[in-house]
Amino acid sequence: MKNDLRFVCHLVNQALGISQYCYPMYQNAPRPEKESFAGVRLFRTKSPQRDTTDIVRVNGVDMMRTTASRILTFDILFVGEDEFVHDVDSCFERQAIINKCNAHGYGYLTKEPISLHNTQLETDWEFRNGLRVMFHTFKITDRPLTDPITTQSSHDIDHWTDDYITEVIGTGQVTGDAGNLVESDIHIKP
Fold first, then answer.
1. How would you class 99 by CB atoms within 10 Å of its CB: exposed for 0-12, middle for 13-18, buried for 19 or more?
2. How confident is the model at residue 73 (pLDDT cuts 50, 70, 90)?
3. Weakest-pLDDT range from 69-78, 140-149, 162-171
4. Which end of the chain is more exposed for a tag (fewer CB within 10 A), N or C?
5. Domains of the chain
6. Among residues 98, 99, 107, which one has the least CA distance to residue 71?
7. In DSSP terms, which residues pair with 81 in a beta bridge?
């Protein structure tokens, strides 16, 4: 999530044309020594659908690839200059910002104002105004098929099968990029 925060901070800096105007929040850092600045925090992550998994070959190794669709909601909170809120608010309609978001794998969805008059949300950071911005992105994770998190040994599967599974109802298959099939029993609990 640090990369997501850095990206949103970069967008704010670019929208205002001011380098290092925006900072990630909750870094246990002192208040920036500026009259006016913005802080960004990840407010919420939501999964709008189930993650998908595929078997792919990466550098000659079979991997379990998990593709996760995520809605990321960020709060961009401002101290000082209120006109900067408007500048950042309108930047999400600019084609250059939309292109930058798309190029980095983020789809801008929506935004709304936040009123935070005199609310202290960080040590010595007193925020006055803010925006809540939502993006859609995909998070992709590759794990080797031999990784203990991806697969379990036969002994481990037999052990939990004895404890939890009562009936095998069929076999499922996943087709990898190379056309290889991975089979797995489909189980039901009582």
1. exposed
2. very high
3. 162-171
4. C
5. 2-50+68-139 (3.30.70), 152-188 (no CATH)
6. 107
7. none
Lookup result for tokens 């056309």:
179
Residue with tokens 């407010």: 43
The total of other beta-carbon atoms located within 10 Å of residue 21's CB is 21
- At 6 the three-state DSSP class reads helix
Other C-beta atoms within 10 Å of 91: how many?
Answer: 18
Per-residue pLDDT band for 76 (boundaries 50, 70, 90) equals very high
Which residues make beta-bridge pairs with 100? none
Helices (H), 38-182: 83-91, 95-103, 154-164
**DSSP per-residue codes, 110-127:** EEEEEEEEEEEEETTEEE
